[in-house]
Amino acid sequence: MSAFAKKQKYAVLSTLLLGITLIIPVAGAQVYGGNQAVKASKTGFVVARGVEHETKTVRFETMFRFSESPDPVKAIRGKGGAEEGSAVTNRIFELKFDASDPQTRLEIVSAAPHVAGKDTVSHIAKANDRAGHRVLAALNADFFHVATGVPLGLQITGGEIVTSPGPKTDTFLAVNKDGSFTLGKSIAISLVLSAENGQQLTLNGINKIRAKTLTNHSFLLTDRFGGSTLSEGNGIEVIIAPSTPNAKLAPGQPVSGVVEAILTAANNPVPPGKFILTASGSKAAWLKQHAPVGQTLTFKADFDQGINEALYAVGGADHRFADVLLQKGQVPPEVLDMTDVNNLEHHPRTIFASKGRMLYAYVIDGRQKGYSDGASVLEAARYLQSLGMDDAINVDGGGSSTYVLRKPDDGRLTVLNRPSDKEERPIANALIVVSTASE
């Protein structure tokens, strides 16, 4: 999904959502919503110990929906639902994961060897699948820069910081070393560079792109980022040799290195085993003053919410749909705000939710009239609330929403949902569920 602004300047669709009737019948049952009879289905199976799948058709009922736009295309940005009047129908894929099971675990993995890279969810699942590490399921995760695949938010994989924004995320899912997980809102992030003289510079991110529109910004890149820095515009790039060869960035752990070179051109190659500081404006001036060749610099990244101890994490940031849908069972006031069009548009959704020790991952198909309309974040929040979820976050959706499962009848990793692009979209990273059981 494109990295567009958190708030739009205009509204094309308005929805008065006064109530939702959620109909989740058993297979083939005839149920009734309002004055209309609705057919719906519900099927499921056990994928492996501690992992269950269910497919549902759910009717979301509202009091009424209206549009003031004279352009019917703009009035129905989600490509479904508005003209139906009082309801939308959605095909929902649900994965239930028991975090207490010792033979299954959650991981956040990259699409490619480099941060600036993309691949499909099914390819990511297959690339991580091996004996003793069988991928049972995979779903798309963070929002990303469409052209390059660089995630917009936070990713920690195997205890290494793959990429991070600053100074915070808007949402997060973290997996702890004991296999438990936490799900919630807003990680505070401190990214601090220290010079030998004690002067400090706050960085804006790790393994992010310094676009020419980002004045007075600085980012630390590792050789995991990609072949070049992809930077644009005026600035400098400082090459650093880590004091410990092949050093990795870990939460809460300082790393040091010596400045080897200062470059004034943009988009320089990223040397293997080296770090690069890329900076513009006042932050480039700081580096010129405090980071000459031969200077030792120290960098440290700290995260609250216990993320310094996390083995895996993903956190949404800098995107209008990086929303918390539920906090302790309640829909946040900002999601209930019906003057905000971002809460009302119908799109495919990927959602992570929790109930006790259980993690639930959902894909709601959309933009396919006659099959599945898609959900607004408000409707999705109310739906999850009706299921008794404790906490829930919205992650990347739209054409990115993909649900891959290892079907027990044939053992193959299969895309179960219908991505709205009519084919899988290459994405940045994925949540995978892994079995470590002996084979």
TrEMBL record:
InterPro entries: NAGPA
Domain Phosphodiester glycosidase: 312-434
Domain of life: Bacteria
Protein name: Phosphodiester glycosidase domain-containing protein
